[in-house]
Design a protein that fits this description.
Strand content: 15-25%
Number of strands: 12
Distance between the termini: 20 Å
Bound molecules: sulfopyruvate, magnesium ion
Radius of gyration: 20 Å
CATH class of the largest domain: Alpha Beta
CATH architecture of the largest domain: Alpha-Beta Barrel
CATH topology of the largest domain: TIM Barrel
Structural class: alpha/beta
Shape: globular
Largest sheet: 8 strands, parallel, barrel
Strand order of the largest sheet: 1-4-5-6-9-10-11-12
Order of helices and strands: HEHEEEHHEHEEEHEHEHEHEHH
Number of domains: 2
Length: 293
């Protein structure tokens, strides 16, 4: 059983939000609204992002956060949420290391890990100057996927292969060729990434991909093409939409403004209009008499 993939098989579309700490996971867990039809709308899972986890530790997004730190965060998230967790595993490290990573994250209760088809010096895919970034050969990446599949103990975790062809200036044919090869190697899902402002390329990919692979879950990360609604991505063929970095991006300017306000006014009174009341933060402290979920 796999919480995430079983739901997708039932035809449910999934919307995830990033968490880089227990407090941000609390936001993912507790945020909900009622839409115009009176239906409750909430996030369906938590994305552990290499960008926001690295940055929250003061590190560049170059595969420096080790598996133990990721497992610590996953344990913290689990303390407050039972929602499926997807972990960004960058390139999956060396293929000699990848099996151990899959095994550790499966035991940690993770529903899926995403590995991107780059090798060597990996940087965040959204940076503009990316001439250092190299795409892995199809053969080597398929080997890595096969190693990961062999390392799985049960059916509780899936490997999602993230295709960087559009990021690295290649076209639709390359992306589709890779998708087919990665699925044949055992990938449970495909993530097609892009740093265009327009969603046209990923939508074109989704339409062709879903003709050949209607039952393979398709993921996207609309960090750059963010003017398109999740519903439109879902109706274009995507099964999972990941909002990958927004809680850290929301927190940073709020913290910076507060810090500057204290310096400017030499007291915290003025900052008080933008920050939560002391009593409100006290009400967030977990009740020791209530067991965690
Ligand atoms: C991350 O969240 O670390 C990702 C997604 O890899 S993105 O930054 O949009 O490339
Ligand atoms: Mg990443």
């Amino acid at each position: 059983m796999n919480l995430l993939f079983d739901q997708i098989k039932l035809g449910k579309k999934r919307r995830l939000l990033e968490a880089h700490s227990a407090i941000s996971a609390m936001i993912v867990e507790n945020s909900s609204i009622y839409d115009k039809n009176g239906e409750k709308k909430e996030f369906d899972g938590v994305w552990v992002s290499s960008l926001t986890l690295s940055l929250s530790k003061g590190l560049p997004d170059i595969e420096l956060v080790d598996i133990t730190s990721k497992l610590n965060l996953i344990q913290e998230i689990r303390r407050i949420s039972n929602k499926p967790i997807i972990v960004d595993c960058d390139t999956g490290s060396l293929k000699e290391q990848f099996g151990f990573i899959v095994n550790a994250l499966e035991r940690g209760g993770v529903s899926a890990i995403v590995i991107e088809d780059k090798f060597g010096y990996k940087q965040n895919s959204l940076i503009e100057e990316n001439e250092n970034q190299k795409q892995e050969s199809v053969e080597n990446f398929c080997d890595k996927i096969r190693i990961g599949v062999r390392a799985m103990q049960h059916d509780t975790i899936g490997i999602v292969a993230r295709i960087e062809s559009f990021i690295l200036g290649k076209g639709l044919d390359d992306a589709l060729f890779r998708a087919k090869a990665y699925i044949n190697a055992g990938a449970s899902g495909i993530l097609i990434h892009s740093k265009d402002k327009s969603a046209d390329k990923v939508i074109e990919f989704a339409k062709v991909f879903k003709v050949d692979f209607p039952n393979i879950p398709l993921f996207c990360v609309p960090s750059k093409f963010n003017s398109i609604a999740d519903e439109e991505l879902f109706s274009s063929g995507f099964d999972v939409v990941i909002h990958a970095n927004h809680l850290l991006r929301a927190a940073y300017p709020a913290m910076l403004n507060t810090a500057k306000s204290i310096l400017q006014f030499d007291r915290s009174y003025e900052a008080g209009t933008d920050i939560m009341e002391i009593n409100d933060i006290l009400s967030l402290i977990p009740d020791p008499n209530v067991m965690p979920i």
